[in-house]
Amino acid sequence: MKIVVLDGYTENPGDLSWEGLEQFGEVTVYDRTPLNDEEEIRKRIGDAEVVYTNKTPLSAATIAAAPNLKFISVLATGYNVVDVAAAKEKGIPVTNIPTYGTAAVGQFAIALLLEICHHIGHHSKTVHEGKWENCEDWCYWDYPLIELAGKTMGIIGFGRIGQATGRIAKALGMKVIANDQFESEAGKEIAEYVDRETLFAQADVIALHCPLFPSTEGMINRENIAKMKDGVIILNNSRGPLIVEQDLADALNSGKVYAAGLDVVSTEPIKGDNPLLKAKNCFITPHISWAPKESRQRLMNIAVDNLKAYVDGAPVNVVNL
After folding, report:
1. How far apart are CA 99 and CA 119, in angstroms?
2. Fewer CB within 10 Å, N or C, the chain?
């Protein structure tokens, strides 16, 4: 069996092993494949039976041009890079990797919040630069420091990741409210479910953990920001297009929104003209919530298990049944 990994570097920059796949056949791993070069994508797939991709697109034409292709696995939870309908027409199962990053993404949302509250990176930098050594007082702080206990965390999207964030927020002494299309008993143990309007009005911190659907795209916009408390903090390490970026930048610059912690933006990698790059008190990280080694190892394990299940005749995590 020939197996091709089209863009393996972000999953495994060298600290993991592909040996789990090697038990099934000959494995070729490309660190990166040009995303817009369909001819090169087809060339690299060649006569492979199994293809793994993270962000390299597999169009209907590419799938049609792969004569031996029998199985596609996306090295991520989202699978919009694959034309799943075209794969289904050819009888090719497409699998994804669910659940692997729950703990890491929830932890990262809180890390963004704590950086906003304490500016730890900044203060450490000033100490190393000599500011404390030369300070006439025994301590100093350059930004307001924020205590979270007693404040309200509002979480939009209260599935596995939202609940992971909620548990940590609750441990910090925060009241947790949540909005989700589906309510669960597990969720009720962590948060009070409310409608979205109530969440906007009551939350001191709003964390986005919902999928990107037509109903959620652009939900953080000028109109909804106006419904929020003055000085609200907004966190997003879910999907960039949940936010109308110019509207958030305007709200940050006016002070209506005190700060934002973002691990995702509308176009990735970020473009130099993104208004959030120049907005006040906006913390942006390069989509790394998912990337701790433990999380990536879990992703690797599931990727191997997906192929094993297919070989055994009982594929799992199939998104185009």
Report:
1. 30
2. C
Q: Mean pLDDT over all residues of the chain?
A: 97
- Residues sharing a CB contact under 8 Å with residue 319, sequence separation 6 or more, in sequence order: 74, 79, 84, 94, 95, 96
CA–CA dist 84, 78 (Å, integer): 12
What are the C-alpha distances in Å from 294 to residues 5, 15, 287? Answer: 20, 11, 16
Residues labelled as active-site residues: 239, 268, 287
CA atoms within 13 A on the CB side of 276: 24
Residues above pLDDT 90, as percent of the chain? 99
d(CA 263, CA 198): 25
Ordered by where they begin, the domains of the chain are 2-100+293-311 (3.40.50.720), 102-284 (3.40.50.720)
Angle between helices 102-118 and 120-128 (to 10 degrees): 60
* pTM (global) more than 0.90: yes
